[in-house]
Amino acid sequence: MKRSKADPVHGWLVLDKPQGLTSTRALGIARRLLNARKAGHAGTLDPLATGVLPLAFGEATKTVPYLVEATKVYRFTVQWGAETATDDVEGQVTHTSDARPTREAIIRALPAFIGDIVQTPPQYSAIKVDGERAYDLAREGEEFELAPRHTRIDRLELIEAGQDDAVLEMTCGKGTYVRAFARDLGRALGCLGHVKALCRLAVGPFSLAAAIPLEKLEESAKGGAAKRLLLPLATALDDIPALAVTDQEAALLRQGQAILARGRVSSRQEAVADDDAVTAPSVYCRSRSGDPIAIVLFDKGELRPVRVFNFSNAKG
Q1: What's this model's pTM, rounded to 2 decimal places?
Q2: Which of 28, 133, 221, 256 has the greatest number of beta carbons closer than 10 A?
Q3: Helix-strand-coil percent breakdown of the chain, rounded to 5?
Q4: Which is catalytic among the residues 7, 16, 46, 239?
Q5: Helix (H, G, I), strand (E, B), or coil: what is residue 127?
Q6: Which residues contact 161 (CB under 8 A, 6 or more apart)?
């Protein structure tokens, strides 16, 4: 049977990823159910992990880089007494310990991990080493070292402490590995540890409360209503200042041309833009009716488009 032509689907789907499914596989299933031309995801979840996996379709894929930078929230269980090759329960045990931490000891250890920290990623990660994925090299038994990376943890909270494990919540920035934290916390406590279970509760404006289980997406697709589950493209841009533009300005932006910024932004923003256009804050431009037009940067008194949305002629 000849495959039906894909549709120009635009928007975000917040999927509650089930355990055992890779992020790429989850995206493929959702794309098929929505019959979408173009799709991408913001922030990979390991197969072991569940929870919020934001999926972008059509023109929404142009906003993925902004969501990747967003704050993330995780709830996870650390199993004490062993380190594994993958820093989670799916890996082979490499070291063991009979020690177990008290609730008080865990609480005392957490502040050392809050703020700007340096973290060595797990050997089984998607980081590239000489052009190869670290997890591929690890599976092949290759010896290599991953350089420590700077990251940020804003909040750590002990939710529950058992004899052999503990449940914690973490609010963190881009590039933070929960598995690496579990490993490092276990070492700091002198008992060793690895991730037993993990759920992502939020990515930027997207929360688990609003996430769609895969079963619901499949059921909606059978009834032809899957596209009703999509959120607007602009949902991912909640943290970016919005600016309404005229029809004439919208036409210029759609053609890739800059428009004047003077008198429309604060003097502080203008000063930042004139001082360093690279680090100047982004602005989301929309029409007077609310239609997304472009994401722009301040540049020498102008608003220069860096991402232009085209819904009428978007191709996957």
Answers
A1: 0.88
A2: 221
A3: 30, 35, 35
A4: 46
A5: coil
A6: 102, 103, 106, 167
Q: Under CATH, domain 72-203 is a member of which superfamily?
A: Pseudouridine synthase (3.30.2350.10)
Q: Which homologous superfamily is 11-70+205-235 in?
A: Pseudouridine synthase (3.30.2350.10)
119: which 2 tokens? 């973290």
The SS3 call for residue 196 is strand
Q: How far apart are CA 294 and CA 89, in angstroms?
A: 44
Q: Is the dihedral of CA 182, 167, 71, 68 positive or negative?
A: positive
276 flagged as catalytic:
no
**Domain extent listing, the chain:** 11-70+205-235, 72-203, 240-308
Report residue 287 as tokens. Answer: 């029409």
1 falls in which pLDDT band (50, 70, 90)? very low
pLDDT tens per residue across span 144-185: 577 788 999 999 999 999 999 999 999 999 989 999 999 999
C-alpha radius of gyration, the chain, whole number: 22
Q: Compute the Cα dihedral for 226, 229, 233, 236 and give only its sign.
A: negative
From CA 108, how far away is CA 91, in angstroms rounded?
28
- 240-308: CATH topology is 2.30.130
- 206-207 and 242-245 strand pairing: unpaired
* Rounded Cα–Cα distance for residues 54 and 211 (Å): 9
What's the confidence (pLDDT) of residue 140? 66
Instruction: Give me the residues paired with residue 206 across strands.
Output: 203
